[in-house]
Amino acid sequence: MKLRIPFVSSIASAMLAVILLVNPVAGQAAGGEVPLDRFPTAKLNDPAALQNGARLFVNYCLNCHSAQLMRYNRLQDIGLTDQQIKDNLLFTGSKTGDTMKIAMSPEDAKSWFGALPPDLSVTARSRASHSGSGADWLYSYLRGYYRDNTRATGWNNAVFANVGMPHVLWELQGTRGATIEEVKKADGGFVKTVINFDTQGNRSEKSEKITSGHAHESSQIKLTPASGGKMSQAEYDGQIADLVAYLTYMADPSARSRVRLGVGVLIFLLFFSVFAWWLNREYWKDIK
């Protein structure tokens, strides 16, 4: 198989992605936790999905985010040859034994943007929580962008509210709007506020006092269907699943071999237990 990986369309879009996390996070998504969508774990055992995920990572992420705990030659574990890695994944003159670094120096990043974009080596592990796995979080996050012109980047995210990273994959997915419903205490009662963002990022707001029922503070967000992208939503979800599969693999490259080894050890112990039981019975059968 030969991978074909285009360069990022422009330096401007790459530089825009560097804004990731420069702006401080103002709070959790929409004032509360958003239920995470479940990542399709079958992708982790699909070499084609992992290879496509590596392509997406190099093309869209590696311009600004390093992965310094991952070496290019580890991609041989997902079915790529050394020559395929050189031809399709190395654009900066690096060697296959090098780690996935970015050309931008930490000093320049801090000088230009105030912070260095985070290394993504173990993001799929660090984002795990009681709400779901790190893969679930990434899968939901990368599909949760909507337009918001009140933000400097023009984007916001349902999972990571007020995130500093723009939607670098918007040409593939298209744009989405959002409706946020918040219920808060005010003037001895409760007020319901509905905030709408259209697909252009324009914001509108309407509030009303709740006079009946048993209100309580809450917040929820609903995203509109994406429009104007190069892919359908199903196709985009598939691409994101491939990218998250690769990020999950990169966070623990030895996971699959470790699981296989663990299964082999358990099978050995099972047979050994039967043999040990039989041997113990033979040793003690004449002793009363």
Q: What does the model show?
A:
By secondary structure, the protein is of the alpha+beta class. It has one domain (11-253): Cytochrome c-like domain (Cytochrome Bc1 Complex, Chain D, domain 2, Orthogonal Bundle), CATH 1.10.760.10. The chain is 35% helix and 17% strand. The chain has 9 helices and 10 strands. Helix 2 crosses helix 8 and helix 6 (134-141) packs antiparallel against helix 8.
CATH topology: Cytochrome Bc1 Complex, Chain D, domain 2
- Helix count equals 9
Total strand count, please? 10
In the sheet with the most strands, the strands line up as: 8-7-6-9
Tell me the strand percentage band.
15-25%
Largest sheet: 4 strands, antiparallel
Structural class: alpha+beta
CATH architecture: Orthogonal Bundle
Mean pLDDT: 85
Question: Brief overview, please?
Answer:
Helices cover 35% and strands 17% of the residues. It has 288 residues and is of the alpha+beta class. It has a single domain, classed as Cytochrome c-like domain (Cytochrome Bc1 Complex, Chain D, domain 2, Orthogonal Bundle), CATH 1.10.760.10.
SSE map:
Layout: H1 11-17, H2 47-61, E1 67-71, H3 82-88, E2 99-100, H4 106-113, H5 123-126, H6 134-141, E3 145-147, E4 155-157, H7 170-173, E5 174-175, E6 178-186, E7 189-197, E8 203-210, E9 218-223, E10 227-228, H8 233-251, H9 255-284
Antiparallel strand pairs: 1-2, 3-4, 5-10, 6-7, 6-9, 7-8
